[in-house]
Every structure is written in structure tokens, then in C-alpha cells.
Amino acid sequence: MKKFTQIFIALLIVTLYSGYLMAQTQDASPFTPTTKAIVEPTDAVWDVLFSFPTANSGEQGIESDGSFLYTSKWGAASNAYFNKYSTAGVKLDSFSITGVTSGIRDLAWGGGFMWGGKNATGIYKMDWTAHTLVSTVTAGIAAVRNLAYDPTANAGAGGLWAGGWTDLNLLTLTGALVQTVTPATGLAGMYGTAYDGITPGGPYLWIFNQTGAAGTAQTMEQFKISTTSLTGVSHNISDVPGFDPAAGIAGGCASNIGIVAGKLVLIGNIQQTPCLVFGYELALANNVNGHQTIENIVKVYPNPANEMINIKSGIYVIDRVSVTNNIGQLVYEAGSNGTNNVQINSSNWVEGIYFVSVQTVEGAKTYKIAVK
Mean pLDDT, to the nearest integer, of 84-93? Predict the structure, then answer.
């Protein structure tokens, strides 16, 4: 009888452990992701537009290309990878990039590339379409933890705001130090930053700040670029659905026009188990603060086209162009390599209707064009 009891207990332990392993393999989440964007009753600042858990913990980098959301794994080199999500929290892809061998804390999208701060002097410059490393930019600062792309910096050539826990600096796209914020912001836990050129009174940076360890307030802080100072506008992110007040701390940060139509969205990633991605409404993405709608920025011509389709942006760099045919098949996709003009050879395309999607810092727009 004693032997039977021992065998029964052993079998029970094996069964329970097997269930545990299966749960780990399935990446079971303690939170239920939203199946669609939350419909807010007003167009108000700090309306939560979406909220969902990531597939794993440790995915605290966050960015959007205007169509999808991307996280970066911060851990050891063997764990360096990226995940692609919809705003409903559906994981669509997972990939690594050869040469990206250390964990990225914060991501930035702009100038046709994805940029990643590796918590050292280097910044990864990545071709997001080909999933390749273009170069590793040597930054003129000690460490890059927070990172944001500023399309208006350096006389319109573009630049990167970057820094560590307590410092904030403006760099050229080749890493040269242009400006250090002096005196410092006074924040001690700056993890992610995001550019905001839409909110009246700006342009601004938003800083996702750890005011302390888990259990303390985790906040979004508004920083005015022209005065290099905090404005006093601060928002506690504890209102995000799924936030764990006992464990959640600030992670990566991004902003985008296009991920939610007609809105400037402030995107954040809360470090908990698993991480929690969210999007706040900041402003309507119309012609405010000197910014124009993408319809007024980008021209696609001629229509109908024959041998060549021209895409011209009078103000901002074209980040990405993709073309699908009338049954949804992708026939062309490429980054612009930092230019304002793109030409597509359509001479071998079948006659018919095509849809040209153009992404700039002001958002994404799809144009219907005929090829004859």
C-alpha cells in the first residue's frame, strides 16, 4: 500500500509538471487581450485606444511603422528578436536581424529606417523591409536607452533624441552630438521617448518615466523641445486596462499617426509579466501646429500610369511605399532610403487598378491608381 501511494504521488507530480511546461510553451497570459480597439466616447486626450499583453515578458521596446506595432526583446544576445503585432494584440510575426546582438531598450521609426538603442554608445540602423542591419551608428554619448526620431531636427535633415536614465541629447543621424539638455530634465528613470509635432504649442517629446520601483507612479512626461524643459504636463499610466500596480514599470515609448486613423497616438510598453502595450490619444491628426494632412503632403501621379508611377512628398521624407493589386497581392514594397521622391517602374504590370500605400511621419495614406 505504501509503495502504491508513492507511485501515485510521483505520477501526480509528473502530470502537474507536464501541465506547467505546456502552459509555458503556449505562453499563457494572465490578461485577456482586446479583440478590437477600445471605442472611446470622446476625442479627448488620454483616451485609451488599445491595450494588450505581449507574447512574453522582456519585450519592452516599442515602435510603429504606421501599419503595425513592433516590440524588441532586451535580454541576452541569444534572445535578441522582434515581434510584430496588430493593435488588437495579435502576434503576426517574430524575427531576428543578423548583427543585432544586444538587447534594445527603445526603438525609433523615421527617415525610412528603424533605429534601436542598445544601452551602449551604439545605435542600430535597420532596414525594416529586408530585416537587415544597415549600420551601427556610434553615438557621441555614453549610453542610449531612450530614443526618438525628430524629423525637424538639424535644419530638417532629421535627428535622434537619445540618452540614458537621466540624460537627454540631440544627435545627428550619423551619431554626432549636437546638443545636451542642460540642466538635465531632473527625471531619474527615463526609459522611452517619442516625438510629438502635432499637439499645439510643440513640438514636444514624451518621456516614459520610472518615478520609482514597481508600486510607485509610472508617468508620461511632456518635454518642450524649443525650451528644452518639462512643461509640467504629466500623466499616470495606471488607467491602462491590464496595468499591474504591484509590478508594472515604464518601458519603451513611441508615437504615430496612421496606426489609428485620424489620431496622433502615444504608444507605451509597460514592463510586467508579460509586458503590456497601450495607445493613448493625444490629438486629432489634422492641420494643426503647422502640420498638414498627408493628402496635402504626398502626390502620386500620373493617374492613369503607364511606364512609371511618381510619388513626391514636398515636406517630409517618405518612409515606406507598398503597392497591392485589386485582389490584395503585394506587387511592390520598399523603403525610400531617406528621400522625398520615389519612382516605381510599372511597365511590366498587368493593366488594372492598384493601391499605393505611402508612409511618412505624418501617417499613412493609400492612393487608388490605374495602370494602362
Answer: 94
Cα angle value 43/46/52 (rounded, 5°): 105
Instruction: Say if residues 264 and 280 touch (Cβ distance below 8 Å).
Output: no
Structural domains in the chain, CATH included, are 30-284 (2.115.10.20), 294-371 (2.60.40.1220)
3-state per-residue secondary structure call for the chain? CHHHHHHHHHHHHHHHHHHHHHHHHCCCCCCCCCCCCCCCCCCCCCCEEEEEECCCCCCCEEEECCCCEEEECCCCHHHCCEEEECCCCCEEEEECCCCCCCCCCEEEEECCEEEEECCCCEEEEEECCCCEEEEEEECCCCCCCEEEEECCCCCCCCEEEEECCCCCEEECCCCCEEEECCCCCCCCCEEEEEEECCCCCCCEEEEEEECCCCCCCEEEEEEECCCCEEEEEEEEHHHCCCCCCCCCECCCEEEEECCCCCEEEEEEEEECCCCEEEEEEEEECCCCCCCCCHHHHEEEECCCECCEEEEEECCCCEEEEEEEECCCCEEEEEECCCCCEEEEECCCCCCEEEEEEEEECCEEEEEEEEEC
Calpha distance 213→282 (Å, rounded): 26
pTM, entire model: 0.70
Q: What is the CA radius of gyration of the chain?
A: 22
Residue percentage of the chain with pLDDT more than 70: 81
Please determine, for residue 372, whether its predicted confidence score (pLDDT) is greater than 70. yes
> Per residue in 297-311, pLDDT tens?
678 889 999 899 999
Q: How many residues does the chain have?
A: 372
